[in-house]
Task: structure prediction
Amino acid sequence: MRTPTILTPLTVRGLTARNRLWLPPMCMYSVEAEDGVVTDWHVLHYATRAMGGFGTVIVEAASVTPKGRISPFDLGLWNDEQIPGHRRLVEAIHAAGSLAGIQLGHGGRKAGTTPPRRPDIAGGARTDTIKGWDLVAPSAIAYPGHAEPRAMSPEEIRETTDAYVAAAARAVAAGYDLVELHGAHGYLIHEFLSPMSNTRTDAYGGSPEGRRRLALETTTAVRETVGDSTALGMRLSATDWAEGGLTGSDTAELAPLLVAAGIDVLHISSGGNAPAQVPVGPGYQVPFAAQVKAAVAGMTTPGGGEPVIVAVGLITEAAQAEQTLITDQADAVAVGRPALRDPYLPVRWAHDLGVNDWEAAGLPVQYWRGAWR
Ligand code: FNR
Result:
């Protein structure tokens, strides 16, 4: 029997994941001490998904500065005291057989919100900005329902790039295999990319080149810092789903520039920068991954090998994931919410596709006696 493509190994920058199933970054808002430090809960949560068979586990958005946190309960990598907790997390993920990645983010004008299950803190879940939070963004344009941000000075932009670089260095010190820059969902890098949130007239706005400058400068600087043996990715919202916003074609134009600047992995999501009518449905973002994949086809990353394209968004069935890969729309699929209810989703999907040899499929052999019979 042919091994399903989702269960074949995937190599990025010389690092090989046992399969092409990714746990995408998902904020757990569980740092009760509000110090950005990994807790036992985080270690157990991510290790469980690694035990379940995900080839690559991407840890939730960790902020590069305290004020860049989406909520006070986010993970962080803005100081050295945060490194040991991440090291424990990486070791647990590795012990269970997955590659470990971390998303580095800055919330920009959507920072400083209350997480969905803590409406006690401010006016309501993920809408109002927490009173007094210093919101920064490319331009002083509020996201509906959030406070008005300050437009960043060129100096503050440089400091933010430096914060990304320092956080990436800490991620490498913690042992992460992959660093993913958060360029999606209406957070800072996306805010710079989109004409809906960036009306600057200086070098960081005014044209597609200007709006792309932060994403590209950050990529170049982080690439230099993380060195040759760490994979570097960026998550993008391919479209704003809104009149006057980013489109799939804009993102297809940006993708080769990012690869040339040192990106190995493009993780293609959408939306988040404007309230929009999104045609949500099975695999609704996959066509954007396919568009980006076509745009970088034939390119070789500076680290060698082709760029890896990850599709995500309502991929909920094994056959659907398999179809996404065998039709060459992406190289890997990320599965988020289904993995919150079922950490053993890769094992289940292997079974759904008729794979019973757990060892050959890189699934946890220790649990093989629990296979369906
Ligand atoms: C998310 N998502 C997300 N995305 C991201 O880039 N960084 C993050 O930290 C988070 N946080 C987060 C928390 C929770 C609880 C959910 C459900 C989602 C989006 C996530 O990575 C994914 O793109 C979407 O959930 C769509 O994929 P699924 O869930 O349909 O497979």
